[in-house]
Design a protein that fits this description.
Blueprint (H helix, E strand, L loop, with lengths): L2 E14 L2 E14 L3 E5 L6 H9 L6 E10 L2 E2 L5 H5 L6 E4 L3 H4 L6 H13 L3 H14 L5 H4 L9 H13 L5 E5 L7 H18 L2 E6 L2 H7 L2 E6 L2 E7 H6 L4 H8 L40 H5 L5 E4 L2 E3 L19 E2 L2
Parallel strand pairs: 3-8, 3-9, 6-7, 7-8
Antiparallel strand pairs: 1-2, 1-4, 4-5, 9-10, 10-12, 11-12, 11-13
């Protein structure tokens, strides 16, 4: 498969008056053409900062300290804001979490989309309008030729989200990043939005990255998953591997906290006790060690290497080491890859 994005050892921090917040700490992953990658984790795990780093939207006091972001064969991590403005919207687009705050309320959908298209495609206003209507039709907005004249407040929540997707797609980007694309939408509309994203990947070969805390969204849409916690990647692999063969206690905790159809009606969910780590003073070892039910002394003292479970599945957990105690379900003796 053609590799569209490769993130290598990405470190992004925010320098506040209280100290350095190490939001993303040495993460690496790849995304192929036409793939849908889900990044999941609780609030503060580094999901959105990873996406904003790729978009080149880390502003003061934030900074990409080190690492490479190879997009379409070119390292974009060190590009200036002016250089990135030629890539954003054209090559990489982002759907933000709340369309009502992302769409300018004093502009019609036509104004917003035509401006983006003319900025990057250098076509006439008439042609830009035609392309905009085409994208609105693609995302399922009825009567797009008339609805394009509407203001954002005249659309429902689901329609605004579709308009956001249409705007993001207006210049046919190679990579689409969706940050919590179904937040505050009812389940029927959520399913429609996710169907649109899947159609984009299969029909247009668009690479998609979905940032979410909702494992249901991941299960419905993605082909592979990254599990983040404390600014680090805990586990990554194909969807079936992560859901049916999890190899990190944090992943298991996330899966156990999701309501399931095969549990009796009054069965209680299993929460993950404790709080996320302080990223101004991250722990020396595994960031999940203070909350992990299977914690060992080494987890608190030594940074965790990445273990290769199989060719497509990796996990950062000391339980995979050949000298770790026997724990059912963990691939003990896995190869260390970094």
């Amino acid at each position: 498969m053609t590799k569209i994005l490769e993130v290598k050892n990405l470190n992004t921090s925010f320098f506040t008056h209280l100290g350095e917040v190490q939001a993303v700490r040495g993460n690496s992953f790849t995304l192929n053409k036409g793939e849908i990658l889900g990044i999941v984790g609780e609030s503060g795990s580094g999901k959105s900062v990873t996406a904003m780093s790729i978009m080149g939207l880390i502003d003061h006091p934030g900074e990409i300290k080190s690492g490479e972001i190879i997009f379409n064969g070119e390292n974009i991590a060190k590009k200036t804001n002016k250089e990135m403005s030629n890539i954003r919207g054209k090559e990489i687009s982002m759907i933000f979490q709340d369309p009502m705050t992302s769409l300018n309320p004093v502009y019609t959908i036509e104004n917003l989309m035509v401006e983006v298209i003319q900025r990057h495609k250098h076509v006439s206003k008439k042609e830009a309008r035609r392309l905009a209507i085409e994208k609105l039709e693609l995302v399922g907005i009825p009567e797009p030729a008339s609805r394009i004249k509407s203001f954002p407040h005249e659309f429902s929540g689901g329609m605004r989200q579709r308009a956001m997707i249409a705007t993001a797609l207006s210049c046919d980007p190679k990579l689409l990043i969706a940050d919590e694309p179904t937040t505050a939408l009812d389940v029927t509309i959520q399913a429609q939005i996710l169907d649109i994203l899947k159609k984009l990947a299969t029909e247009l070969d668009t690479s998609i990255m979905i940032i979410t805390h909702d494992l249901g969204v991941i299960a419905e849409t993605c082909t592979k998953i990254i599990v983040m916690y404390g600014g680090l990647i805990m586990e990554k692999g194909p969807i079936d591997e992560i859901f049916y063969n999890p190899q990190h206690p944090y992943t298991i905790g996330l899966l156990n906290s999701v309501p399931r159809m095969d549990v009796e009606e009054k069965g209680r969910l299993i929460p993950i006790p404790g709080s996320p780590p302080d990223l101004m003073n991250p722990p020396k070892g595994c960031p999940f060690s203070t909350r992990c039910p299977r914690v060992m002394q080494i987890c608190k003292e030594e940074p965790v290497p990445t273990f290769k479970v199989n060719d497509n599945h990796t996990s950062a957990c000391w339980l995979l080491h050949k000298d770790a105690p026997e724990v059912g379900g963990f691939a003990k003796g896995s190869e260390i890859i970094d």
